[in-house]
């Protein structure tokens, strides 16, 4: 038999695979960074009338006691040439005005991001002291074996061995925690019965690779960005309903006061902002708008616009974008796993076995991206955070794994479904583009009504 | 005046370049030292597990006294060689002796486990199963620690040999490190001859 050398695309050295995926690791940071920057700029410009108005009124009140600068008159002087004839204003002046106007709003958005990321950091997903489950039973050989394989892979990756927790769940495992120094691996009970020691080593290698490659920190950053979008969408949706509007105060209070219960409430609210997540009986909130609700009315303009836009952008663009970029992290974890074990068959046979098992593990919308294989409860997503099993197996075959038979039909959607989804996305994007000017007009009118007019009246009275 | 600013900016960039190069090489070198320490930890763990293993097996493998004694002797030799190498890490002969002793211990353990297959009562013994798993994982950890060390050395050597670090690495005090050689002797690495 004549042995033929491998053709160009048939084989890939795992060092090259890891380096290739590492080069594309910037995608998630770019997607999140750009989305957050755009949202922050839009929000800060919309909040500028309110923030400057409040600051101006405070100075006006203080002017009754001692002389203070007239901030509102100064702002009006800067704004009037731009309002009268924007085209006559030099670009540099326009840009510096936008920067000045958005500065307080940007600071506020940074605080909002910090508060949301604090809530997420305190969730069971990232705060490993809250992990429910039991440690491996030293008398159970399989549990001891899995814990040992995790320690072996931690030695290979030169990171501390993660804590191991076993929970009642499907055949899946996930890495949780903030970073490699305080990581926990959560294992579903059913997984241990399905795989042998070599396959355990493959799964353990994938988990340790995800920890060593900093997937948890990136996951937290991603969850924070999605959380800020979800918060704004939640607030804007709540404006439509009196009960929800009053209940939003509960959300704002929970964000500011970080107790375990309040952070859990925040996460439940933010996991899907379009669903009215369970609140303490809504009837306990007064149906009438009290003075607190009227005080929040000036927020209606900015929040109305940015909330809806944020919701659309998050669902149609940001989430699919993040899911697409996160798939690279999964390929990278697989490639790093092969680098650690030098044995791709362990992981490939494990993926093949798990492809027709029940893989439901952690509940909660934020948890699925940390699992080894796609948990079955992740449905309704335009793009999955997990590449199709066939693609993962093909990548492992290129790195030297044996071909694995797939018992279930291909999980990759047929072409016509993908074209249909793509077409729907284009239609939705068109609708958003048409809706945008209407939202801008509505937001401007609400801002005029609830923010600029009351401030102008009060300013005239005080000065 | 603008010429002065440009010169200062260029100087600042050059300094930043050297700082980042030095920091990167330091991080890679520390990784190599961490990996070397890890090998030591796993080898010591293996030495500690073996007496328990022999005691558990002794009552079952009554006719394998020679093999059991060989395991204990190989373990003691490896432990002594390891202590000597730790006291004199700069002595290449001590390191070579340690590597040889560890290789001999690995092959003796391999013969022990092959023999233990013929004793089903011993294999079924709960204590033996756990000890066997602990030894398997320790052997694996020794292997992975050596692999991690070689990977860290490869990364450091690649960084030192790449341009522009290759011009400055010597002056900054960094030199290439040798990879670890396999534990087995030349004779053991030869494929066995099979005759029918």
Automatic annotation (TrEMBL), chain A:
<feature type="transmembrane region" description="Helical">
    <location>
        <begin position="303"/>
        <end position="326"/>
    </location>
</feature>
<dbReference type="InterPro" id="IPR050083">
    <property type="entry name" value="HtpX_protease"/>
</dbReference>
<protein>
    <submittedName>
        <fullName>M48 family metalloprotease</fullName>
        <ecNumber>3.4.24.-</ecNumber>
    </submittedName>
</protein>
<keyword id="KW-0378">Hydrolase</keyword>
<feature type="transmembrane region" description="Helical">
    <location>
        <begin position="30"/>
        <end position="59"/>
    </location>
</feature>
<keyword id="KW-0645">Protease</keyword>
<feature type="transmembrane region" description="Helical">
    <location>
        <begin position="415"/>
        <end position="435"/>
    </location>
</feature>
<dbReference type="GO" id="GO:0008237">
    <property type="term" value="F:metallopeptidase activity"/>
</dbReference>
<feature type="transmembrane region" description="Helical">
    <location>
        <begin position="94"/>
        <end position="116"/>
    </location>
</feature>
<dbReference type="InterPro" id="IPR001915">
    <property type="entry name" value="Peptidase_M48"/>
</dbReference>
<keyword id="KW-1003">Cell membrane</keyword>
<keyword id="KW-1133">Transmembrane helix</keyword>
<keyword id="KW-0479">Metal-binding</keyword>
<feature type="domain" description="Peptidase M48">
    <location>
        <begin position="143"/>
        <end position="396"/>
    </location>
</feature>
<keyword id="KW-0862">Zinc</keyword>
<keyword id="KW-0482">Metalloprotease</keyword>
<keyword id="KW-0472">Membrane</keyword>
<dbReference type="Pfam" id="PF01435">
    <property type="entry name" value="Peptidase_M48"/>
</dbReference>
<feature type="transmembrane region" description="Helical">
    <location>
        <begin position="223"/>
        <end position="240"/>
    </location>
</feature>
<keyword id="KW-0812">Transmembrane</keyword>
<feature type="transmembrane region" description="Helical">
    <location>
        <begin position="441"/>
        <end position="462"/>
    </location>
</feature>
TrEMBL record, chain B:
<keyword id="KW-0472">Membrane</keyword>
<protein>
    <submittedName>
        <fullName>LemA family protein</fullName>
    </submittedName>
</protein>
<dbReference type="InterPro" id="IPR023353">
    <property type="entry name" value="LemA-like_dom_sf"/>
</dbReference>
<comment type="similarity">
    <text>Belongs to the LemA family.</text>
</comment>
<keyword id="KW-1133">Transmembrane helix</keyword>
<dbReference type="InterPro" id="IPR007156">
    <property type="entry name" value="MamQ_LemA"/>
</dbReference>
<dbReference type="Pfam" id="PF04011">
    <property type="entry name" value="LemA"/>
</dbReference>
<keyword id="KW-0812">Transmembrane</keyword>
